[in-house]
Predict the 3D structure of the following.
Amino acid sequence: QVQLQESGPGLVKPSETLSLTCTVSGGSISGYYYYWIRQPAGKGLEWIGRFNTREFSDYNPSLKSRVTMSLDTSRGQFSLRLISVTAADTAVYYCARDDTGIGSAAIYWGQGILVTVSS
Amino acid sequence: QSALTQPASVSGSPGQSIAFSCTGTSSDVGGYNYVSWYQQHPGKAPKLMIYEVTNRPSGVPDRFSGSKSGNTASLTISGLQAEDEANYYCMSYTSSSTLVFGGGTKLTVL
């Protein structure tokens, strides 16, 4: 059974870089789209971007200048890097995987990790 | 990119059928059959309920169904149950090769 688990610091200072890792278990990491999605407290879901094992990526236009995603197939990990964070980046961050082969739906989700941006 | 439009809340009684709408444009919902729906209970991760407009992942009850007409997609729950009370989000592929969520609808089971 496919499982995803987010990890990383829960507190990041303003203007610094948020770095999160998603560890994938229960099968091969290759051949799928991976997503990062976030949700500020009490608000809706926001798609951050997607990445696949062919290093094909797309990012939310509102975040594109600050976001980088990468995949380490040898470690079974998918990563997010968001630079120059502000309080507006405080949210629960989810990683997810799309097994449809198209890159249009998040089938498997991690439990989420709360990241707070504060000095 | 603009978020898809969903009503803020809907309510229904057990056993009833209810439908959620998700309105976009010809550049997202109307242009592709790549609309998905997610159920989220408080404090939990979202769960995929429908993908590619009408497809149900294994394990999702057939009480949940999806459809689309023009720029509006819909999720219908028949035989409403207490455990269906949750927030529901739609998501669509866009002409910019990105994905965009709706603002979410809170379902209350009376």
